[in-house]
Amino acid sequence: MIEHNINIRKQTNAFAMYYGLVFGIIWCILFFMLVSPQEVLRTLAGLLFFSVPFIGFFIARHFRKTVKNDGEINYWRGFWFSLLMYIYASAILALFAYLYFRFLDNGAFVESNLKVLSRPEIKKLLEQSVISEGRNAYDEMLSALQNITPLAVTASVINFSSFISIPLALVTSLFAMTRKRK
After folding, report:
1. Is 0.90 surpassed by the pTM of this model?
2. Which of 60, 84, 131, 165 has the fewest other C-beta atoms within 10 Å?
3. CA distance 20 to 13
């Protein structure tokens, strides 16, 4: 019985690694589109970002179909699979983000954001929306954006991915579990 449980954990982890790799590649493509200087790709990436949960649901259903012969998949096994899948995908995305900003970007992402932020209507909107107490919040934001490092971007990717992984796994696990047959 104990050996069977260990094998189930190993199998769940192996599937989570595999599907996490697939999901990570999908997230890397979305990330690459998001940091692209072309507005069409950024808009498309923003729209495709909302498809991430549905892709997770599809992958969880595929996991369920693949391993259903091994017995019942309860909610917690589905949750463990989903959480690990999102964590592995997040690690791949964080690595990709670091490599992209460290070696490929050369400041293009920051420059394109600075162009957007320097538009008069955006500058006016930002200055009106931020209450500054003797400080110019707009200039501070520009300075912070110019001084961002690849490691800081990677940390924010990890933070964001970790933040969304748990709620996504809670819902995705519902699609991975099998129903008891009467």
Report:
1. no
2. 131
3. 10
